[in-house]
């Protein structure tokens, strides 16, 4: 089994966000002998002129930073407007999921629908062989030519979770030059500086790129409006009110504004969000423990599993692994945890691993609490 890139030079379209990772990835692809063209995706219909510290991306400043990096690398550069597609497939999906009481991950949706669908389709139509990004993950090629997605060499930077939505066709045209890097982020920045890339000291983008101020609740309130509802305990007793169930996530502790303390004096957490009656249920931490779940819309990085199997699973972009057993039943993924896990929310992605290999991902639909029934 070998790492990509492949031995022959490729025509590569490098997605350049204006950050240091994508700039170094494009530079490495060019240095490897590939024919590289840089492209910055304009994903906002009304981009800000400047970022706010490390928040947000896709600003005019980011576009200029990407162009300057391409000039230093010595590759052609273009800006492609995918704002309408991004709004429809990522932003609107994000709002609709929260409105339905679920907790989505827009980065997975962006990789699935934008970078490795809309962008990749356009790249292939123009004669490119691959799309290159600054993600930390590896694509390995088996002797029979099939490709596998694996964790990055450095687990601390691994981003395979947000790439778990990629299928065989997309993997066949994906290039991740940073995936085999056993270096710290400081060393990546040092490499960028050696290459003369001005983005070497630019802060990383955090949070949700289209919510530059980091105020997700405020963003949703502007889109969905305020809708007062009840906060109740597990018995149904009313403890307080809220201005929109969409403003809460499973496992949330802060910002509940409950005036009545728990009988045992311990903190309460969000256990359930019901958009039907606009009710948020809270309770003790132990009630967050989940023993099993059902996930829908599975996407496989290769062949679908044949029968029940034992895997490790990751439930959050920066979360750890947990051991599970999983099998497909009528197109749904049924997962049982070896040990209960806490704070699993419908709408999140579960990504299955076999060692370092990404088996696939699915969207969590329902959970089974370790102390009760389905949540």
Automatic annotation (TrEMBL):
Region (Interaction with tRNA), start-end ranges: 157-159
Domain tRNA-specific 2-thiouridylase MnmA-like C-terminal: from-to ranges: 292-364
Binding site for ATP: 15-22, 41, 134
Entry's Gene Ontology cellular component terms: cytoplasm
Keyword RNA-binding in annotation: yes
Subcellular compartments: Cytoplasm
One protein family per Pfam: tRNA_Me_trans_C
Chief site of localization: cytoplasm
Enzyme Commission number: 2.8.1.13
Keyword Nucleotidyltransferase: no
MF GO annotations: ATP binding; tRNA binding; tRNA-uridine 2-sulfurtransferase activity
Top EC category: transferase
Catalytic residues of the enzyme: 110 (nucleophile), 209 (cysteine persulfide intermediate)
Residue ranges occupied by any tRNA-specific 2-thiouridylase MnmA-like central domain in the UniProt entry: 218-283
InterPro entries: MnmA-like, MnmA-like_C, MnmA-like_central, MnmA-like_central_sf, Rossmann-like_a/b/a_fold
Keywords associated with the record: ATP-binding, Cytoplasm, Disulfide bond, Nucleotide-binding, RNA-binding, Transferase, tRNA processing, tRNA-binding
Catalysis: reaction(s): S-sulfanyl-L-cysteinyl-[protein] + uridine(34) in tRNA + AH2 + ATP = 2-thiouridine(34) in tRNA + L-cysteinyl-[protein] + A + AMP + diphosphate + H(+)
Site (Interaction with tRNA): 135, 348
Role description: Catalyzes the 2-thiolation of uridine at the wobble position (U34) of tRNA, leading to the formation of s(2)U34.
Family, as annotated: Belongs to the MnmA/TRMU family.
Record protein name field: tRNA-specific 2-thiouridylase MnmA
Source organism per UniProt: Streptomyces adustus
Recorded name of the encoding gene: mnmA
């Amino acid at each position: 089994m070998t790492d990509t890139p492949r031995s022959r030079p490729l025509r590569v379209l490098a997605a350049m966000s204006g950050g240091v990772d994508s700039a170094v990835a494009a530079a490495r692809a060019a240095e490897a002998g590939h024919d590289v063209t840089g492209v910055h995706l304009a994903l906002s219909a009304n981009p800000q002129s400047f970022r706010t510290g490390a928040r947000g991306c896709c600003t005019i400043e980011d576009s200029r930073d990407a162009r300057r990096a391409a000039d230093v690398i010595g590759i052609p550069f273009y800006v492609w407007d995918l704002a309408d597609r991004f709004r429809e497939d990522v932003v609107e999906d994000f709002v609709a999921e929260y409105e339905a009481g679920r907790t989505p991950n827009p980065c997975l949706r962006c990789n699935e629908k934008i970078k490795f669908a809309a962008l990749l389709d356009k790249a292939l139509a123009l004669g490119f062989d691959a799309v290159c990004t600054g993600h930390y993950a590896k694509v390995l090629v088996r002797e029979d030519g099939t490709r596998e997605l694996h964790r990055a060499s450095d687990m601390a930077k691994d981003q395979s979770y947000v790439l778990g939505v990629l299928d065989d066709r997309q993997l066949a045209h994906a290039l991740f030059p940073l995936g085999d890097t056993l270096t710290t982020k400081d060393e990546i920045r040092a490499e960028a500086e050696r290459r003369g890339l001005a983005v070497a000291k630019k802060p990383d983008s955090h949070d949700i790129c289209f919510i530059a101020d980091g105020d997700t609740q405020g963003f949703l309130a502007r889109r969905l409006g305020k809708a007062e509802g009840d906060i109740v305990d597990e018995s149904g007793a009313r403890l307080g009110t809220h201005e929109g169930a969409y403003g809460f996530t499973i496992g949330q502790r802060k910002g509940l504004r409950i005036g009545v303390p728990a009988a045992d004096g311990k903190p309460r957490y969000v256990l359930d969000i019901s958009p039907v009656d606009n009710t948020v249920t809270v309770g003790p931490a132990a009630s967050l423990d989940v023993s099993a779940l059902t996930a829908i819309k599975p996407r496989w990085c290769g062949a679908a599993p044949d029968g029940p199997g034992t895997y490790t699973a990751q439930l959050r972009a920066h979360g750890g692994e947990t051991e599970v057993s999983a099998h497909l039943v009528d197109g749904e993924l049924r997962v049982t945890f070896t040990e209960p896990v806490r704070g699993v929310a419908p709408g999140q992605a579960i990504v299955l691993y076999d060692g370092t290999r990404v088996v696939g991902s699915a969207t969590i639909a329902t959970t089974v609490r370790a102390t009760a029934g389905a949540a």
